[in-house]
Design goal:
278 residues; Rossmann fold; globular
């Protein structure tokens, strides 16, 4: 472990996890809250949540395999591999209490695998702007084309084009810094890492018939203008998971935690202090 000071409440650590060096931001103290970023980003997408929750939780925000400052694997990185990395990370960090797991988009795909293989490690689930079904044939082909494009031309070939699917038009207008931050995050990501997880998402399992078996407190959060995982998708999942809740964030797209951090933090707060601890 190689800690690097961030501020009084935060530190960056590096752990050997399943043959790679994994970088993780650890902040605060209290019950563990695991934040799992989306594609093709890093733990930095969660900075508003880290700052908000570090006063009451041990916030664990890793860079997944191939992203941020974590080592890269070439070929295909499956959602199960990411889930196994997270389990090994928690072991390395000596986190013994069940975690509240919050994942966005790809982080949600990984959540299903984490629940499947490590259910005893979960206290609660928060699923932001994600889905339980697998890709259609068209979706698979689009992912494989993007992976090939990035391998050939680098992340700059996709960074700007991704923005309309990531944040709403109103967020682009009202918060122009969000687009810049997302483009910077994407362009800082290694092309091999992007391609490997894109291929892994293309091959991911369909959990739409399994989520009815989830028996832990679960919250779904979605943006009202999300093009990739629209409200009807989020609502349907919530209808399948017993006693789960769906909360919608107005006027935002796929990156609800970045676009409306105060609203999302409040939804998470209400859930973690009431529903998840009931």
């Amino acid at each position: 472990m190689k800690p690097k000071d961030c501020n009084m409440n935060q530190k960056l650590v590096e752990q050997n996890v399943n043959g790679i060096r994994m970088r993780t931001l650890i902040a605060g103290s209290g019950p563990p809250l695991l934040l799992v970023h989306g594609f093709p980003l890093s733990h930095e997408m969660w900075l508003p949540q880290i700052m908000h929750f570090q006063s009451r939780y041990t916030v664990i925000a890793p860079d997944l395999r191939g992203f941020g400052d974590t080592d890269i694997s070439t070929g295909v990185v499956t959602m199960e591999q990411h889930a196994r990395d997270l389990n090994s990370l928690l072991q390395a960090l000596k986190i013994e209490d069940p975690v509240s797991y919050c994942g966005l988009s790809m982080g949600g795909y990984i959540a299903w695998e984490f629940w499947k293989h490590f259910a005893d490690r979960l206290h609660a689930l928060i699923l932001c702007d994600t889905r339980a079904d697998a890709d259609s044939d068209e979706g698979v082909n689009n992912r494989l084309k993007m992976a090939d494009l990035v391998l050939r031309h680098g992340p700059e070939a996709i960074s700007t084009a991704m923005i309309p699917n990531l944040i709403s038009e109103s967020s682009q207008q009202r918060q122009p810094h969000l687009s810049k931050n997302l483009v910077s995050m994407i362009e800082a990501t290694n092309r091999e890492g992007i391609a490997a997880s894109q291929k892994g998402m293309a091959a991911r399992s369909d959990f739409s018939n399994q989520i009815k078996n989830i028996r832990i407190p679960t919250l779904f959060i979605g943006g009202s203008e999300d093009r990739l995982t629209p409200p009807e998708v989020m609502n349907w999942m919530s209808s399948q998971v017993p006693e789960s809740k769906y909360s919608e964030v107005s006027n935002v797209g796929h990156m609800a935690p970045m676009e409306a951090p105060e609203a999302v933090n409040q939804m998470m707060d209400d859930f973690l202090t009431a529903g998840a601890n009931a």
